[in-house]
From TrEMBL:
InterPro entries, per the entry: ADH-like_C, ADH-like_N, ADH_Zn_CS, GroES-like_sf, NAD(P)-bd_dom_sf
Membrane keyword on record: no
Catalytic activities: a secondary alcohol + NAD(+) = a ketone + NADH + H(+); a primary alcohol + NAD(+) = an aldehyde + NADH + H(+)
Name of the protein in question: Alcohol dehydrogenase 1
SUPFAM superfamilies: GroES-like, NAD(P)-binding Rossmann-fold domains
Entry's EC annotation: 1.1.1.1
Compartments reported by the entry: Cytoplasm
Subunit description: Homodimer.
Domain Alcohol dehydrogenase-like N-terminal: 54-182
Coiled-coil region: none
Species: Xanthoceras sorbifolium
Keyword field: Cytoplasm, Metal-binding, NAD, Oxidoreductase, Zinc
Major location (coarse): cytoplasm
């Protein structure tokens, strides 16, 4: 056989392989399955069914661990849904597309997102909202919308999805409305962290708090989301960024994110809002609350300056919490706002966040403090449970 024929034969073989892959319903790939709450994940060979109408199958290349995965894996506060494949911060490539998918094709670089954008509902059509009626986050649903079934199974036993993404799997099936197509030149091992926490904090500041250049911003909670909010304040040109946290170990790290001053509420015997008001001649211009603690939320609101101050709530409170403040605080022209996913519409807006990284405006690398191969995914859980670092990126091919 001459060389060119051999090459042709190899190419044909490769094409056939691709075609077979798409049609082969029984194809298995490694996925990290959570069989029980709080128990280490187990890497299993999982069948991943082909995408149905308006779905895409993605090859996940990098994924990272977020607090929300750990919260639902521990399943202390909600109805447990197991066995389940967790994971919602990731970067990957489209492998195949289902019927009706027109704006994605195999090979596209994408970020899957835990909340979607159908582009048809009232929320999607509103410039002000990103809370899609059809694809808004649903932590209780473990199946696909199309047929109410899972695309994952092991020897016929269904394995539940998580927030429509389930990225702790080499292949996953996602609704097309939960997939942001991004610049293929962006390194997926870096921008994978933009799928959730980092964009949430960044958007809370840039899209909702909107600090002016030279303003003073307080950030409550210096975990990954809070530091992303600080990064937003740095990008917006804030002159003072005051970090508030109960853990003094976080202060050193926070300096890298533009935080200029630190307040540990434990160091004072008066409310932290009074401490901040004294530091800033009456209050900060903007505050962003990223802890979910109800008292921190109230402090974050009461520490903004009257006349113009805006406080933005990001953290998720406990079920029975109630926000208590004197109405005069609002009448004195303070504004209280809340945000979900930093007000970003996943498909329309995430590509521009990736561009902010590409043009070096947004620094993503400093959020990535650990990296582990997929086979050691449980280490990522250990780091997070120990409060060690910010984001651990998991390499699927290793
Ligand atoms: Zn919608
Ligand atoms: Zn998350």
């Amino acid at each position: 056989m001459c060389t060119c024929l051999l090459t042709t034969a190899i190419v044909i073989q490769q094409i056939l392989k691709t075609v077979n892959l798409k049609k082969d319903v029984k194809h298995c790939w490694p996925a990290a399955v959570a069989w029980e709450p709080g128990k280490p994940l187990v890497i299993e060979q999982v069948e991943v069914a082909p995408p149905q109408a308006m779905e895409v199958r993605l090859k996940i290349l990098f994924t990272s661990l977020c607090h929300t995965d750990v919260y639902f894996w521990e399943a202390k506060g909600q109805t447990p849904l197991f066995p389940r494949i967790f994971g919602h911060e990731a970067g990957g490539i489209v492998e195949s597309v289902g019927e009706g998918v027109t704006d994605l094709k195999p090979g596209d670089h994408v970020l899957p997102v835990f909340t979607g954008e159908c582009k048809e509902c009232r929320h999607c059509k509103s410039e002000e909202s990103n809370m899609c009626d059809l694809l808004r986050i649903n932590t209780d649903r473990g199946v696909m919308l199309n047929d109410g079934k899972s695309r994952f199974s092991i020897k016929g036993q269904p394995i539940y999805h998580f927030v429509g993404t389930s990225t702790f799997s080499e292949y996953t099936v996602v609704h097309v409305g939960c997939v942001a197509k991004i610049n293929p030149a962006a390194s997926l091992d870096k921008v994978c962290v933009l799928s959730c926490g980092i964009s949430t904090g960044l958007g809370a500041t840039l899209n909702v708090a909107k600090p002016k250049k030279g303003s003073t911003v307080a950030i409550f909670g210096l975990g990954a989301v809070g530091l992303a909010a600080a990064e937003g304040a740095r990008i917006a040109g804030a002159s003072r960024i005051i970090g508030v946290d109960l853990n003094p170990k976080r202060f050193d790290e926070a300096k890298k994110f533009g935080v200029t001053e630190f307040v540990n509420p434990k160091d004072y015997d008066k409310p932290v809002q009074e401490v901040i008001a004294e530091m800033t001649d009456g209050g900060v211009d903007r505050s962003v609350e990223c802890t979910g603690n109800i008292n921190a939320m109230i402090s974050a609101f009461e520490c903004v300056h009257d006349g113009w101050g805006v406080a933005v709530l990001v953290g998720v409170p406990n079920k029975d919490d109630a926000f208590k403040t004197h109405p005069m605080n609002l009448l004195n022209e303070r504004t209280l706002k809340g945000t979900f996913f930093g007000n970003y519409k996943p498909r329309s807006d995430l590509p521009s966040v990736v561009e902010k990284y590409m043009n070096k405006e947004l620094e993503v690398e400093k959020f990535i403090t650990h990296e582990v191969p997929f086979s050691e995914i449980n280490k990522a859980f250990e780091y997070m449970l120990q409060g060690d670092g910010l984001r651990c990126v998991i390499r699927m091919d290793a």
